[in-house]
Amino acid sequence: MEKADIKSWNQKELGGFLASLGEKPFRAKQIYPWLHVKHAETFEEMTDISKKLKEKLINTCELTVLRQEDVQCSEIDGTRKYLFALPDGNVVESVWMKYHHGNSVCISSQAGCRMGCRFCASALGGFVRNLTPAEMLDQVYQIQKDTGERVSHVVVMGTGEPLDNYENLLKFIRLISDENGINISQRNLTVSTCGIVPAMYRLAEEKLQITLALSLHASSQEKRMELMPVAKKYEIHQVVKACRDYFAKTGRRITFEYSLVEGVNDSNEDAGRLGALIRGINCHVNLIPVNPIKERDYRQPNSETILNFKNKLEKYGINVTIRREMGRDIDGACGQLRKKFSERQGKI
After folding, report:
1. What pTM was estimated for this model as a whole?
2. Which of 93, 135, 161, 257 is the catalytic position?
């Protein structure tokens, strides 16, 4: 019999499961903090429950714990890039970044990715599977344990397309913002998407207070199709319209992620088209000088081009920042560390 994924349940679901084992549902209030506050890695660590209940849990449940396979630490800014092994041997990446406003962790939502964005290393090895809520949570838990510092912000922007793993993503959001658990404010959670339009409309109806970040990366449908295969299914104006709807339903400002690639999407014409496309949306544009990967010949524009692009957008009344590069002296771009590991293992 397949064991239950106990760390992916909320306290009410845990109580129902315990009742099915003949236990009092209030035991959930004892066990839940061990999973989501104290981050117990074995049932034996749970000192305030009986030996009999521990045996029941061992026999019926799995306790998802990720193993740290590798970690790279930036000498420039202290950014840490983690490679975690999942219980089935697949590996995922997470990044810990220290900012003045607190510690931020970027986590993966899938092992591999099926989206195929041209400038991203995440999809080079193909899609393997979705992560469970517990596997998403434990990336944050393990990093807190390793650094000894509290995580205040979480970005679901690592390997994978979060909205392609919709139900598990939703459970993850509710668990990590649960006041009985790690209790990270939903306002400090950001979910990135390459633009899966039906899921964006669905997410707007969930009554969450998270930030939605759209990986836009182009100012026209033609250019977006060159960079992002998903654009062949969801046209650029459809995607932007879904962003307008998200703001209207939630009141949460949209973030547009735009990777600047020299000679591809960094011209004055691109900036003008982008400004016209998103003008009037309560939004913030994050300009990201592309992080080169060896499989692509994409390069960063020079600093003057980046600044000109920013200035042009600001003339449209758009709030723009140039993303501070974190972890550039390590494998900072999505998918790089995982891909190197897989190559060493002979898997890709």
Report:
1. 0.91
2. 93
Residue given tokens 């607190």 in the structure block? 102
Q: Is 316 helix (H, G, I), strand (E, B) or coil?
A: coil
Question: What is the phi-psi region of residue 18: left when phi exceeds 0, alpha when psi lies from -120 to 50, beta otherwise?
Answer: alpha
Q: 3-class DSSP state for residue 5?
A: strand
Q: What is the 3-state secondary structure (H, E, C) of 147-200?
A: HCCCCCEEEECCCCCHHHHHHHHHHHHHHHCCCCCCCCCHHHEEEEECCCHHHH
Active site residue 106: no
Q: CB within 8 A of 198, min separation 6: which ones?
A: none
- Provide the pLDDT for residue 307: 96
**Over the range 273-296, which residues count as b (16 or more CB within 10 Å of their CB) and which as e?**
bbbebbeebebbbbbbbbbebeee
- Helix 197-204 and helix 236-250, axial crossing angle in degrees, nearest 10: 10
Q: What is the DSSP letter of 211?
A: E
Helix or strand holding residue 52 (H, E): helix 51-60
User: Between the CA atoms of 222, 224, 229 and 234, what dihedral angle is there, to the nearest 10 degrees?
Assistant: -90
Q: Can 283 be counted among the known catalytic residues?
A: no
- How far apart (Å, rounded) are the C-alpha atoms in residues 105 and 96? 5
Question: From the candidates 61, 106, 113, 334, which is the catalytic residue?
Answer: 334
CA distance readout (Å), 207 to 186, 210, 245 = 11, 9, 13
How far apart CA 293 and CA 298 sit, in angstroms, is 8
pLDDT at 180: 96
Identify the three-state secondary structure at position 253: coil
**Strand partners of residue 256:** 214, 285
Confidence at residue 341, expressed as pLDDT on a 0 to 100 scale: 59
* pLDDT averaged per 10 residues in sequence order, the chain, 348 residues: 94 96 93 97 95 96 97 91 95 93 95 84 80 98 97 95 98 98 97 97 97 96 93 97 97 96 94 96 94 70 95 95 74 57 54
